[in-house]
Amino acid sequence: MVRARDVVEGAVDDSDLARISPTVDLKNRRTALRMDDLLVVLVGRIGDTAVAAPRQEGWNVARSVAVIRFTPAGLNHGINTWIRWWLGAPETRELLRAGSAGAEHATLPLGDLKQLPVSLPPRLLRTRILRTMDLAERKIALNSRIVECATELADAHFSRLTQEGGHARRPGVAVADVARVIGGAPRSAPVEGAAALAWASPREVLNSTAAHLERTTEITWAPVEAVCPPGTLLVAPRPGEVRTVAAAIPVVPGRGMLAIRTDDEADRMWLLHELRSRSGDLVTAVQGEQTRAMSRKKFAVFPLFWPAGEVRERFARIVTPLHDRSLAALRESRALQDLVVSEMTMSPGGER
What we know:
By secondary structure, this protein is α+β, with helices and mostly antiparallel strands. Helices cover 42% and strands 14% of the residues. It has a 5-stranded mixed beta sheet with strand order 6-13-10-11-8. Strands 4-3-5 form a 3-stranded antiparallel beta sheet, with helices on one face.
């Protein structure tokens, strides 16, 4: 059974799926998946989508996910692709959130999704934009592979250095000895005198397949001093996992996560890879009885493998270009997405 949390960056993450009994499945055959069905998140990250792959035929979905099924004609004319991109447009997201309830766990009623207006330009123009979408998606897929390879190479360098003998290690070094640990905050409604700032939810960190977060889907209103600068490490938990990414933009960390700040670039690079490589240790050491939360106090005293300064600096010189290339690929993909969405939303409307 596919849940909202399994919809990640346009696909279904099937690494930790829930299971339902055949009896429950038989009672809900209307939502049994077919290839090319469009899955839409209704709770939390409302409007996020994934396309059902051939291997997912016959699977079912939770109530937090809607299924949009297209006619053969709709598939042939690219209506499925158009609606998938339309749901990702900022204007559409704002419209969906306006009809939802709650701040951090917004819920989109299925009826509101059914009534969502979709502007379809004349067929010739739509065909041209669909070709642009296809080219953009191919380039985005290539960029995703670049990000994956760059991250794997950086992780491999880190693994080699930690496994090599002969590196002096400072004993008794904890997170708080090398960085500042800051708690997250809930998303706020507009407040007079406060600035609108990017707000990172724990789910965005957990769903990030990259080591960097360069955009958020939500904003919050907070004093400027509450914002964390680019380079801040964002750490988010869920049962059995703790994930760490580096913020590439000024951001306010969401409630339930921690922000780790250090001014030294070599320390930041080492700490990023140290925390990412020790997710299992962090689960054991810092998650409390409520496994979706972390103890800030326990995290601050979490012991680190902390080699001499020259080792950390050498590591940073090697991996910083890899991280820069990864971030450049992510930003190019975002620019392509913005370009396509701009063409869609600025094109003259036709059918609705």
